[in-house]
Design a protein that fits this description.
heterodimer; A: 141 residues; alpha+beta; five-stranded mixed β-barrel; 30% strand; B: 868 residues; 29 strands
Chain lengths: 141, 868
């Protein structure tokens, strides 16, 4: 066997390793129920949840807590996922400024006890920059 | 008045450009296949050239028309309306040009047109026709993207010359009056209002366009079955593409560092990755090409890599413009419904290019001999393989949204998402790629050097660089241990540091050796030193980025999750100093940018009027010592951006500096915060506001408290002491529009704040027997003072005072050690590339000389360890 073949085999091996590792690192879009089920099984990997903010009959957002004077790094809100399951979410960062106007929220994190701790929030706002965007088709949508 | 002429002119130019691209592509291919003897070739070539020249003129015509629409504020056109506005300075109008998809396609087309002209002039008899056939063929596809023709249900391209009334056919205003022209546009995305955004896109697209050149040469080589000689002209072009694309990427990184607030220069966003991937492959291709030029090996790999790099550019275009990334990316273009068309092109090029490669595969000469392990070429080849694996890794992850879309397309629902911790995911691979590249570049270069000086012993070549590497690694670790900067104790980081230093010293050794003989061949060594420095810069700035704005107030909402939670943001009350890292930090007020003044102006010095782009100066506004505006002057302001003055005072040295992080409350995009950065020799201090009190909410004033006072009396408001010094005729009456017979007086009051004394002059006016009052607001103290009533008989005055929440900002600040090494490394790398281009261009011209080839290999840059 020539050296070039050994190198070829090595490259393919590394490539396969990359694919396997990506598959294991990749996160998933899940509803809250599944996020809870994962946490109960002791699986603390981070997941994506897509949802909307909880609003009352008048369209006001309900259950949002942010008091920068007390703690600028604590923001908590209620998210309703696509299965209409409500869940309290805590985000240890300042509240994103355009949060109130968002139509859709994607959060990344995991369940810890009764709260979902998010470390990333992605907002879809009804703006000219995003209104035409096609959302990625996912199972949870 | 709707001006349809300019749009029609533009649209016809697009059609002409499309048709001429078609003609020139066919004629060039006939010329390439034609027989030189019977003159058939010459006449086809003549036709093709004429068609291409007309094509270039048409492209200029399109650009002229589109720019005219933006420059003249022709808001009857959707492109101007949606990307520009009346108050936009001219240099940002240039950015508007390519903010939209159509304009950025146009920019790409423009570079192709120019490069095409250069190739017609310089490619030479042999290559002009096949190369230009490929070029025109690509132009055909690109121009069709802005064609804007609808046939039945099929939409081909999106025209930038579409009128508002045709774009929004349902809008009632256009149904009532088709000639309605909006007064103002919706403006340029504020994040793009940055000088880097004027220069970064053209550079990046020039890089894209330049990638086509070596691709076209490779295809031409396969087509004409001339598998070897295309490599000579392709080499300088490949180097050119790599340096331009690399600089374009780094400009984007610098823009992100300066303008966005995710805390760094690289975020592993799919849009960034999409450009990074082809660049890595392109650099790999250059390496295999050099190996081939030197020792006739790796020709097949060179074909594969150049072709792949261009296909990856097309894939990048598909990713960022088809809308397929959806919510996976922060800054993709809006979807124009062209994903089908984009996919068709991508597929067409993949099939055609790979098909041709497969057909010719057997004919491509390959060497049967083994490459010696101690030859430079062997390590160059391994280096190219590592680069490609690095590119492959980023590609596999970045394409995750594509898998979902594809599975959805064939009817299977999947829910795969990008890794939750992208930085950790990419770092895991890219850092090791960096280490491998550093080792390989040093070793490969030294082995090549040994070959040049045949007879030198292996140990002799490696001795000095290894000694220096060991020495400096120990030195740096020692210094870090002594606490001069962050302590380096992560073994992987130590390895990266050591290997990068090894790459620096081995290339430095070569450079010093070369300098004595021939400077012009030092490009490779210089570029490699640049890359190694970039690795070091990334290691420190990202690996040891340190947040200093830790919330030490001790007040936390909930401790349910222990102390591990984030406390990275600090609330700063106006004028109250807070300790942060080595500094005492004070937020001191809000500032605006005023036209004609280099410094920002405190909002309190400006009286805002109805026209939000103008304000009246309340006192002299100075540029240094020179008074530019006096009290009462109307000044032009840029109202969108508010700058927050934050003073940093070093507690030990007492040195003071001020930063002005910016925030913009944008009706469409919410809060857009941009950092302000203080650069020190060894680190950057990077700060941005995270949250500000909501601009949209009116200030809530407390209950009005009334005080009966006489002149000289003192009153206590909210812990502040205020004194009424007297009553005087009102001075600041400019805004009252007083007429003869009206009376206006003002109170002369003094309020003692924490840091300084404030003067307040609330006005009391009588006009047509009506009482008018102008309150004075002291934003610093959160006070609003009014002169409510005057009782001349008793000499008593009624002062009314409201208080409000004091102003605050929430700030995040971090230190990024040695980030300057990254930028310096970028510049050195680019310089090395340019040296190599000059040399290989001359080499290509000289033709025969097979002298010592430039040190193989320009290595990849990784921006791993980006702690966002």
């Amino acid at each position: 066997m020539k050296r070039i073949h050994i190198i070829g085999i090595l490259i393919i091996a590394v490539a396969i390793g990359i694919i396997m590792s990506t598959a294991s690192d990749a996160s998933v879009y899940v509803p809250f129920n599944e996020a809870k089920a994962r946490a109960q099984e002791g699986d603390d990997t981070k997941v994506h949840v897509v949802g909307r903010l909880k609003k009352d009959a008048k369209g006001h957002i309900v259950g949002m807590k942010y008091d920068p004077m007390l703690d600028p790094n604590y923001f908590s809100f209620v998210l309703v996922d696509t299965n209409r399951v409500e869940q309290q979410v805590v985000y240890y960062n300042p509240k994103p400024q355009d949060f109130d106007r968002s139509e859709q929220v994607v959060i990344t994190g995991n369940m810890q006890g009764n709260t979902f701790v998010a470390d990333k929030i992605l907002l879809k706002c009804p703006s000219k920059y995003t209104e035409n965007e096609v959302k990625v088709e996912t199972a949870s949508l | 008045m709707v001006n349809t002429l300019i749009g029609d002119l533009g649209h016809y130019s697009v059609i002409i450009a499309f048709v001429t691209a078609l003609v020139s592509s066919f004629s060039f291919s006939f010329a390439a296949n034609g027989n030189a003897l019977d003159g058939e070739q010459a006449s086809w070539k003549k036709l093709a050239r004429v068609a291409f020249f007309v094509h270039v003129l048409a492209v200029f015509g399109i650009i002229f028309c589109l720019f005219n629409i933006i420059y003249e504020h022709r808001y009857e056109y959707h492109y101007a309306w949606s990307h520009s506005s009346n108050h936009l300075p001219v240099h940002y109008m240039i950015s508007c040009f390519w903010e939209g998809q159509e304009g950025s396609f146009l920019l790409w087309i423009f570079w192709h047109a120019l490069l095409g002209l250069v190739l017609i002039k310089f490619a030479g008899k042999k290559w002009e026709s096949p190369v230009m056939a490929v070029f025109s063929f690509v132009q055909l596809f690109l121009t069709s993207m802005i064609l804007g023709v609808v046939i039945g249900d099929l939409k081909i391209g999106s025209s930038p010359f579409i009128l508002m009334r045709d774009f929004m056919t349902d809008a009632p205003v256009f149904q009532m009056d088709p000639n309605f022209v909006p007064k103002d546009g919706t403006g340029l995305n504020p994040l793009l209002q940055n000088y880097w955004m004027v220069i970064h896109p053209p550079v990046l697209f020039l890089g894209f366009a330049a990638t086509l050149v070596p691709f076209a040469f490779a295809i031409a080589g396969l087509w004409k079955k001339d598998f070897s000689s295309w490599t000579k002209p392709a080499l300088p072009w490949g180097l050119f593409a790599a340096v331009v694309l690399g600089v374009g990427i780094m400009m984007g990184a610098y823009w992100a560092y300066e303008t966005l607030n995710f805390g760094g220069y690289w975020n592993w966003d799919p849009v960034e990755n999409a450009v990074y991937i082809p660049w890595l492959v392109l650099v790999g291709a250059i390496h295999t090409l050099l190996a081939y030029r030197k020792s006739r090996t790796a020709l097949r790999a060179t074909f594969i890599l150049f072709i792949t790099s261009f296909l990856l550019v097309l894939y990048a275009t598909f990713l960022t413009r088809s809308g397929i990334l959806g919510n996976a990316s922060v800054h993709s273009f809006t979807d124009l419904g062209l994903s089908g068309q984009l996919f068709t092109y991508l597929a067409a090029f993949v099939v055609l290019a790979i098909g041709l490669l497969v057909v010719r595969w057997k004919n491509i000469p390959a060497t049967e001999k083994e490459i010696a392990t101690y030859s430079g070429e062997f390590w160059v080849f391994i280096g190219a393989a590592v680069l490609c694996l690095g590119a492959f890794q980023v590609l596999v992850t970045t394409s995750i949204p594509v898998y979902n879309a594809f599975m959805g397309f064939i009817g299977v629902k999947t829910n795969v998402a990008l890794p939750a911790d992208q930085i950790a995911h990419y770092t895991k691979f890219q850092m090791w790629m960096g280490i491998a590249i550093a080792i390989l570049s040093g070793t490969g270069q030294l082995l090549w050097w040994r070959k040049q000086n045949s007879g030198t012993k292996l140990s002799e070549v490696f001795m000095l660089p290894l000694i220096f590497t060991g020495l400096f690694t120990c030195l740096i670790l020692l210094v870090s241990k002594m606490g001069y900067f962050e302590r380096i104790d992560n073994p992987a980081y130590i390895l990266l540091l050591a290997t990068a230093l090894y790459a620096v010293f081995s290339n430095l050794a070569i450079l010093l050796g070369v300098l004595r003989k021939n400077v012009s061949i030092a490009g490779g060594a210089v570029a490699h030193i640049g890359v190694a420095l970039m690795l070091i810069g990334i290691l420190f700035s990202a690996g040891y980025s340190n947040i200093i704005s830790t919330n030490m107030s001790g007040m936390v909402y909930a401790r349910e999750f222990g102390d591990e939670i984030n406390r990275d943001n600090v609330l700063l009350w106006r004028n109250a100093a807070t300790d942060m890292g080595p500094y005492k930090v004070t937020y001191k007020g809000q500032y605006l940018e005023v036209k004609g003044l280099p410094d920002y102006v405190n909002k309190q010095q400006l009286f805002r009027i109805e026209d939000e782009f103008k304000a009246i100066a309340r006192g002299p506004l100075k540029d240094g010592d020179k008074v530019v505006y006096t009290s009462g002057d109307t000044v032009e302001i840029y109202p969108e951006n508010t700058y927050y003055e934050v003073e940093f005072k070093n507690r030990e040295t007492n040195k003071v500096f001020t930063l002005y992080p910016r925030a913009q409350v944008n009706p469409q995009m919410g809060l857009l915060a941009s950092p302000d950065i203080k650069m020190f020799g060894t680190k950057d201090l990077y700060t941005h506001v995270s949250t500000i009190p909501d601009f949209n909410e009116e200030k809530e004033w407390g209950e009005l408290k009334e005080y009966q006072v006489k002149i000289g009396d003192t009153l206590f408001v909210n812990d502040y002491v205020a004194v009424l010094h007297g009553i005087e005729p009102a001075k600041d009456t400019l805004l009252l529009n007083l007429k003869p017979g009206d009376v206006a007086v003002q109170a002369d009051m003094q309020v003692l704040g924490e840091r300084r004394t404030y003067h307040a002059h609330p006005i009391y006016a009588i006009r047509d027997r009506m009482v008018g009052r102008v309150p004075e607001e002291i934003e610093d103290l959160g006070l609003r003072i009014m002169l409510l009533n005057i009782d001349p008989e008793k000499g008593q005055f009624t002062i009314g005072i409201n208080t409000t929440q004091k102003d605050y900002i929430i700030l995040k600040a971090m230190e990024k050690p040695f980030i300057s090494i990254l930028w310096i490394g970028t510049i050195i790398m680019s310089a090395g590339f340019v040296m190599a281009i000059v040399r290989h261009y001359k080499d290509g011209k000289g033709g025969s000389s097979k002298g010592p080839k430039g040190p193989a290999g320009k290595v990849a840059v990784k921006r791993e360890k980006q702690l966002a």
